[in-house]
C-alpha cells in the first residue's frame, strides 16, 4: 500500500502541473474598502448574493471562522472549508487549522472531481490579507458607497491585471446601492 500512495501522489503532482492553480478572491467592497461591519455585510444586495451563489455553486470555498459564523451554516452544494484554531468540527464542512492544509484539500478534491483547479477565498479580511501575494483572480463587487465598517479589503494595484468581465446593477427595492461586478486576472 505504501507504493500506491507514492504513485497516487506522483499522479496528483502530474495532474496539478497540467492544471494551473487559480486562487480567487470573491469579495464585495465599498469605495473605502469596507467589506464588513459587526461580523455582517454592511449592505443588502440581493443580485450580488445571486451572483455569489452562481459563482461558488459546486466549487470549493475557503473562509475564516468569523465569515462562517456570519453565514451561520455550511453553504449547500459547495465544498465548505473553514479555517479555525478554535473550532474542531462542523457538520457538512472541513475544518482546518491553517491555510496550507485547506488549499491542499481543495486541490485534491478538484483533481478527484476533474474540476478546474480554482481555490475560492470568500473572506474574511485576514484570509484576503494572507493570500494577497498569491491570488491571481479577483471577482469583486464594487459597491457605490462609502460606509462605516470594521473589516477592510486591502488596497490592490490593478495595473498588472486584466479586466475580463464587468456588469453593472442599479439600486432598487432589493439592492441598497448601485454596484458593479468585475472579474480580473493577474497578468
Largest sheet: 8 strands, mixed
Gyration radius from CA atoms, angstroms: 17 Å
| CATH architecture title | 3-Layer(aba) Sandwich
CATH superfamily: Dihydrofolate Reductase, subunit A
Q: If strands are numbered along the chain, what order do they take across the biggest sheet?
A: 5-4-3-6-1-7-10-9
Distance between the termini: 42 Å
Q: Estimate the strand proportion.
A: 25-35%
Would you list the SSEs in sequence order as H and E?
HEEHEHEEHEHEEEE
**How many DSSP-defined strands?**
10
Helix-residue proportion: 25-40%
Question: How many domains in all?
Answer: 1
Write up this protein:
The protein is an alpha/beta fold and 187 residues long. It has one domain: Dihydrofolate Reductase, subunit A, CATH 3.40.430. It is 29% helix and 30% strand. It has helices at 2-18, 46-56, 65-71, 99-112, 125-130, and strands at 22-29, 34-36, 60-64, 79-83, 94-96, 118-123, 137-143, 151-152, 161-169, 179-186. It has an eight-stranded mixed beta sheet. A two-stranded antiparallel sheet has the order 2-8. The radius of gyration is 17 Å and the shape is globular. It starts with a helix and ends with a strand. Mean pLDDT is 91; it is low at 1-16.
Amino acid at each position: 500500500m505504501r507504493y500506491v500512495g507514492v504513485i497516487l501522489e506522483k499522479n496528483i503532482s502530474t495532474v496539478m502541473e497540467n492544471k494551473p492553480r487559480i486562487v480567487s478572491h470573491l469579495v464585495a467592497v465599498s469605495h473605502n474598502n469596507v467589506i464588513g461591519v459587526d461580523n455582517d455585510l454592511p449592505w443588502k444586495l440581493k443580485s450580488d448574493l445571486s451572483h455569489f451563489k452562481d459563482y461558488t455553486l459546486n466549487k470549493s470555498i475557503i473562509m475564516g471562522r468569523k465569515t462562517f459564523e456570519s453565514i451561520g451554516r455550511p453553504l449547500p452544494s459547495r465544498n465548505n472549508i473553514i479555517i479555525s484554531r478554535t473550532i474542531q468540527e462542523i457538520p457538512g464542512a472541513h475544518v482546518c487549522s491553517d491555510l496550507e492544509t485547506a488549499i491542499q484539500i481543495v486541490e485534491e478534491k478538484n483533481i478527484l472531481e476533474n474540476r478546474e483547479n480554482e481555490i475560492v477565498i470568500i473572506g474574511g479580511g485576514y484570509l484576503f490579507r494572507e493570500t494577497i501575494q498569491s491570488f491571481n483572480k479577483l471577482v469583486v463587487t464594487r459597491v457605490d458607497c462609502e460606509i462605516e465598517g470594521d473589516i477592510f479589503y486591502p488596497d490592490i494595484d490593478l495595473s498588472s491585471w486584466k479586466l475580463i468581465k464587468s456588469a453593472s446593477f442599479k439600486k432598487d427595492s432589493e439592492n441598497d446601492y448601485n454596484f458593479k461586478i468585475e472579474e480580473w486576472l493577474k497578468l
